[in-house]
Design goal:
Length: 153
């Protein structure tokens, strides 16, 4: 597991409209924040963004890995996973699913995550929202989602 550095004639110098959010460069390679590993066949598997990594009971956890797993489950349209503070373990995860509240789907997601990730990493709660908040790019707006959760939605 480590930082993913890439080299290509199509590299960029920074993020448009984000002063100071420049890509890290070294010897013709660029690092844009992803963590991953190469398998035995030389295939690259991404775990998540370095900036989103959290710890749960001294385990490094990438919420994207849990999001991707949940999104692939039957009946899930879209998913976002957020960390919440936990005094005992450092963090705990909550999953937010897009769509109407479905208790059976909530239970299926929780059970599948416990089998795949274990009880510490599996989301402790599943929330349903009509629509996940999105950025202009179409990606989930995690900051807005965190505000919604704090507000009790």
């Amino acid at each position: 597991m480590g930082e993913v550095w890439v080299r290509s004639p199509y590299l960029f110098d920074g993020y448009l409209g984000a002063p100071g959010a420049e890509a890290h460069r070294r010897d013709g390679f660029v690092f844009v924040g992803e963590i991953g590993h190469l398998d035995g066949n030389g295939l690259l598997w991404l775990k998540g963004r370095r900036t989103r990594m959290i710890t749960i009971a001294d385990q490094n956890v990438y919420p994207e890995e849990v999001e991707n797993f949940i999104t692939d489950l039957p009946g899930v349209a879209a998913c976002a996973v957020l960390p919440l503070p936990d005094a005992l373990r450092g963090h705990r995860l909550v999953a937010c699913l897009e769509g109407a509240r479905e208790p059976r789907l909530s239970a299926a997601v929780t059970d599948a995550c416990r089998r795949r990730f274990g009880p510490l990493v599996a989301p402790r709660r599943v929330h349903f929202l009509d629509d996940l908040p999105r950025l202009v790019s179409g990606k989930t707006d995690h900051a807005e989602l965190a505000r919604l959760l704090e507000g009790g939605s």
